[in-house]
Specification:
Immunoglobulin-like, 2 domains, C8orf32 fold, alpha+beta
């Protein structure tokens, strides 16, 4: 990533693998930061309230380049599908899950509750209802990178009928929460593993997790098929909680490159 700032600018970053996947990291580089920034980016990390790894830096005036790479082990299994998963009664939900029923910056449950109950109130509770929401969002929204808009909320997505992966996730999350299904936003890596390679430049991906039968399940309203190789970086109520870059002052993102490639597994080497 290359960032241009007119003045020294404090910033936070969520560019690491989520803490729940640290045991799977085989090797990773230091967080390279070029441009002379006075920074704790390379060695100091903290966890936020959602378990996301946060780094901080003061970006100098001019251009700062940030680079990070590594190898992570993934079991290669596809997203779990459990059509028998039931919807957890509200009085059985853990307290830490309750926050994912509430409206948030990009997920206006109050504006879309009526729409949700009209469309999905007749669908059986549990997995079937979440899948019906994914089916609707997948069919209702046209995907396209030119449609990216960091100010668009779920209500805007519903009305405009186009967006990028974060918009698909926000709308699905909002409709789930309106139906009393806890749902949280996820961002991370999703390579073209087990599917035809997408000719578009690779990007980070957004999906969501729904809480059913006492655990979180991954759902992806954009692709709407189980996928292999999801590597979560950050989770939160919506995109507000998980920005890859958050600057406390203006900046310009001048370049951005993401790669997620499957590696051949080497034979074990005897000690």
């Amino acid at each position: 990533m290359a960032l241009d700032c007119a003045n020294p600018t404090p910033a936070t970053f969520a560019v690491d693998i989520h803490s729940s996947r640290h045991r799977d990291i085989i090797v990773q580089s230091p967080m390279f930061l070029r441009g002379g920034a006075h920074s704790t980016l390379s060695n100091a990390m903290s966890l936020d309230m959602f378990g996301n790894v946060r780094r901080r830096a003061v970006l100098p005036a001019g251009r700062t380049e940030i680079e990070h790479h590594g190898v992570i082990h993934d079991p290669g299994t596809i997203d779990v599908v459990n059509v028998a998963a039931r919807q957890s009664p509200l009085d059985e939900l853990p307290e830490e899950v309750m926050v994912f029923l509430l409206g948030s910056r990009y997920c206006e449950t109050d504006l879309l509750a009526g729409e949700a109950w009209t469309r999905f109130g007749h669908v059986p509770e549990g997995w079937a209802r979440v899948q019906a929401i994914c089916d609707f969002v997948h069919d209702h929204i046209e995907f396209g990178y030119p449609h990216a808009d960091c100010t668009r909320s779920a209500a805007g997505v519903m009305a405009q009928k186009h967006g990028v992966c974060r918009d698909f996730a926000h709308l699905a999350i909002t409709l789930c929460r309106a139906m009393n299904i806890p749902a949280r936003y996820c961002t991370g890596y999703l390579g073209d593993i087990g599917v035809p390679r997408d000719p578009a430049p690779m990007d980070f991906s957004a999906w969501f997790e729904a809480y059913l039968d006492g655990r979180w399940y991954s759902f992806d309203a954009r692709h709407n098929v189980p996928r292999t190789g999801r590597v979560v970086m950050a989770r939160g109520r919506d995109a507000t909680d998980v920005p890859i870059i958050c600057t406390f002052g203006p900046h310009q993102l001048s370049s951005f490159e993401v790669w997620t490639d499957e590696m051949a597994v080497a034979e074990p080497v005897a000690a």
